[in-house]
Specification:
This protein is mainly alpha-helical and about 350 residues long. The protein contains 12 helices and 4 strands. The radius of gyration is 24 Å and the shape is elongated.
Length: about 350
């Protein structure tokens, strides 16, 4: 078991490191693409077919290529003129994410730090697991909610943290809590946390940019805006297109996070604790009350359990595999908890 798990986790870690580098490189390109597509649609509505140069002049843009489409030229001109701003904004956002990711995540989830004197049971369980693997003990945070959930976060030794809810501490016994902590440590060992933080920060930036573009649209005088409701319809249409583009880019980043990470973290927990039954019991309890009010969907993808939304297309857009499937795999690894189980609705 340990050799297979180690091999799987090593490969997973290498893949996550590669994905992190690719996302870092792709992020400014995604932002530039969002700007280009936005101004392409602006061009369809702003530019007069007879004298498109007037529209370019209003925005201070100069055509850089001749594609045969004034709207396409408009979008490319916007990217060419403003790429330093786009790349600069991406660089600043990356630095903010690097230096303030822990604070951002705590703010998004309502977590607060704790130490050994405040939570001796929790700290001792985590420290013992870290000693068994030669790891530096990450920071511990607690969310004061009755919900049952947990997550790991951070991008390096200084920022690694394991966060659990108060409900988890109250309702799980020591073996079950240890299994959850081992699961989260596996995420840290596998570099899942780094990839997740990068994704959450980038999706936030894309959402912010989409909102800025939405406000910009309200100030744009559209061709045909004086023709009754036609201008309003065009305004709504272009806004919908921009938000659709932003949402699709966010999905691209989210799909970079494989649901396979949860299976590997479950297996890593069993490898550390040698107790699949404890992980099974913990998942069953967590699945009954995982929802933490007020936490965004981007942050929830870090949790040990994140039930799929109704529009997840049969789980295709889900960030986590079904708990039922995870339990079946754990039972195959030696879990001895008998009896059928279903999630409470």
């Amino acid at each position: 078991m340990s050799e297979t798990a180690a091999l799987g986790l090593t490969t997973h870690r290498q893949n996550n490191n590669l994905k992190s580098l690719l996302l870092l490189a792709a992020f400014p390109l995604l932002l530039a693409a969002l700007v280009g597509f936005t101004f392409f649609f602006f061009g369809l509505l702003l530019l007069d077919a007879q004298s498109p140069q007037e529209g370019f002049a209003v925005w201070g843009l100069t055509p850089v290529v001749q594609t045969g489409s004034a709207a396409a030229d408009f979008g490319l001109a916007a990217v060419y003129a403003w790429w330093p701003l786009v790349f600069g904004a991406a660089a600043i956002w990356m630095l903010i994410g690097y230096f303030f990711n822990a604070r951002i995540i705590r703010s998004a989830t309502g977590a607060h730090p704790v130490d050994r004197t405040q939570e001796p049971r929790l700290y001792n369980l985590l420290e013992n697991l870290c000693i068994s693997r030669g790891l530096i003990t990450p920071r511990l945070h607690v969310i004061e909610t009755e919900a049952l959930n947990a997550f790991a976060s951070g991008i390096d030794q200084k920022s690694y943290a394991v966060t659990v809810t108060r409900g988890l501490l109250l309702e799980l016994d020591d073996d079950e809590l240890e299994a959850v902590l081992a699961h989260e440590l596996t995420h840290i060992m596998g570099r899942d946390t780094r990839l997740l933080v990068i994704t959450v920060v980038f999706v936030g930036m894309i959402s912010f940019l989409a909102q800025m573009l939405w406000r910009m649209i309200g100030r744009v005088p559209l061709r045909g805006s004086k023709k009754g409701g036609a201008g309003a319809a065009l305004l709504i249409g272009i806004a919908a297109v921009i938000f659709a583009i932003g949402y699709m880019l966010a999905l691209v980043l989210r799909f970079a996070i494989s649901r396979r990470r949860e299976y590997l973290a479950d297996a890593g927990s069993v490898d550390m604790t040698k107790n699949p039954g404890a992980m099974i019991r913990a998942l069953r309890k967590i699945a009954q009350k995982p929802h933490i009010p007020g936490v965004s969907s981007e942050a929830r993808q870090m949790f040990i359990e994140n039930p799929p939304a109704r529009f997840s297309l049969g789980g295709l857009l889900a960030t986590h595999p079904p708990v039922e499937k995870r339990i079946q795999i754990l039972e195959a690894l030696g879990g001895d908890l008998p009896g059928p189980w279903t999630r409470k609705e």
